[in-house]
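Message: I would love a firmer grasp of how sequence relates to backbone shape in proteins. Thank you; the sequence and its tokens follow:
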Amino acid sequence: MIELTPAERRALRARAHALHPVVAIAGNGLAAGVLAELERSLQAHELIKVRIQGAERAQREALLAELCEALDAAPIQHIGNILIVWRPQREEKPPEKKAPARPNPATAKSAAAFAAAARRAALAKAVEERKRNEARKGRFYREPPQRPRNAPHGGR
């Protein structure tokens, strides 16, 4: 387990105040799946809240100690059914960098051709829509008669 000073613990408690529990531990206790999820959460966030369900105070304290021992983490706080645990992020091996691949000129050319074809199709669709609207306004479409401004409402 990691040992912290009271000032460090106080600062971590303040940071944890706004957090929501990321893992819930119920009747099965610290199963392998729960430990794996706790490990992922600690690696991603460093500081997490854990909700314990259906356990008495002594059981929760034992569970907190067991959890911190298994994950090499530090217990920050235990209030009711909520445990707060912290562990600094572990260094991960960076993925091996491959030499940058040269762009395939055929792919770039086909992508440009695809974009040009899409623009042509959009323009053709817009022209067809404009022709259709003009036809509606012309011979096939009759607009409703306009009511004179001084005519009474509701009557003919």
Q: What stands out?
A: The mean pLDDT is 84.
